[in-house]
Design goal:
Layout (H helix, E strand, L loop, with lengths): L3 E6 L6 H7 L2 E3 L2 E3 L5 E3 L6 H7 L6 E3 L3 H13 L4 E6 L7 H9 L6 E6 L5 H15 L4 H13 L1 E6 L4 H5 L5 H10 L1 E7 L5 E8 L4 H10 L7 E9 L2 H14 L6 E5 L2 H7 L3 E9 L2
Parallel strand pairs: 1-2, 1-6, 6-7, 11-12
Antiparallel strand pairs: 3-4, 3-5, 8-9, 8-13, 9-10, 11-13
Helix pairs in contact: 2-11, 3-4, 5-6
């Protein structure tokens, strides 16, 4: 009989109650501060603590510990798991998926499939949740893994950055672009490109238009009769997040699941507070 474990990383932003409900295993990415201290995302440090750090520095981020990953595989083997499905942060931002493939080879007793999600935050997390729900229903490893590529392809997430300051400090955009965004109050909406890197899909002028445009980005994927999950996330912006959750849900009320997530500490190192995200995951008919 197959016993299937689901692994993802801390950037998947799955709400804690759903992690517990489905027994999903989380590998934390690492965060290093200027004084040499190292923290595990979501374990030793929170996004709110990162926002405080951003007042004085941009913390560095790195892959999950390979030792932690190996210990997790040993633990799963010893707990009687026979198969592992790992859905990890986009290779456009991190080498986590490739690292996990290498580590998995050291525990051949587990039949393991690692997926590069080519997305992040709740886009990656929602795919892990769908896989976990399928495993709980008793679906076979082969059937679940065969469906995941299409599920990932049909997951679309969009994020509005409240300020360009942290992206500039982190070297993610040029100073001229950052200055223009600040002066003109332009807020970029970004999404994951086909290669898994972040790219701008729209520039919105003013705070009031952000939620509307995020909803419009989602709307382009909704078709009559389609099945879908809705996704909303915020990074230090709970009031606007709650407003966006209500607005998106009222526009598209026929969702099967609606997940609200908090942006993790790792991504917060680069985007700062005030982020809003909206997304949709299309399900097979």
């Amino acid at each position: 009989m197959q016993k299937i474990a689901i692994i993802t990383d801390s950037c998947a932003d799955i709400p804690p109650e759903l992690i517990k409900k489905y027994g999903i295993y989380i590998l934390p990415l690492m965060i290093r501060t200027a004084d040499g201290r190292e923290y595990r995302d979501g374990v030793d440090i929170t996004a709110d603590q990162v926002y405080e750090l951003l007042r004085s520095e941009i913390p560095k981020t790195s892959l999950p510990s390979s030792d932690d990953a190996l210990m997790l595989f040993y633990r799963l083997r010893d707990e009687g798991y026979t198969h592992v499905i790992a859905i990890m942060l986009s290779s456009g931002l991190s080498g986590t998926a490739n690292m996990l493939r290498i580590v998995a080879q050291q525990v051949p007793e587990l039949d393991t499939m690692v997926f590069d999600s080519l997305t992040g935050s709740i886009g990656c997390g929602m795919a892990a949740l769908e896989a976990a729900a399928a495993a709980e229903r008793g679906e076979a490893f082969a059937a679940i893994t065969a469906r995941i590529p299409t599920l990932l392809k049909n997951t679309h997430v969009f994020f509005s950055v409240n300020t360009l300051e942290y992206l500039m400090k982190g070297g993610r955009i040029g100073k001229i672009t950052a200055l223009a965004g600040t002066v003109l109050n332009i807020k970029p909406i970004v999404s994951f490109m086909p290669d898994g890197q972040l790219g701008s899909v729209e520039k919105v002028r003013g705070e009031k238009m952000v939620q509307t445009r995020l909803c419009e980005q989602v709307k382009q994927y909704v078709r009559p009769g389609c099945r879908y999950n809705l996704l909303v996330a915020d990074g230090g912006n709970p009031i606007a997040g709650a407003e966006l959750q209500k607005k998106l849900g009222s526009m598209f009320p026929n969702y099967e699941q609606y997940i609200y997530a908090k942006i993790d500490a790792t991504l917060s190192c680069y985007i700062g507070p005030g982020v809003l995200g909206a997304g949709i995951q299309l399900l097979e008919q």
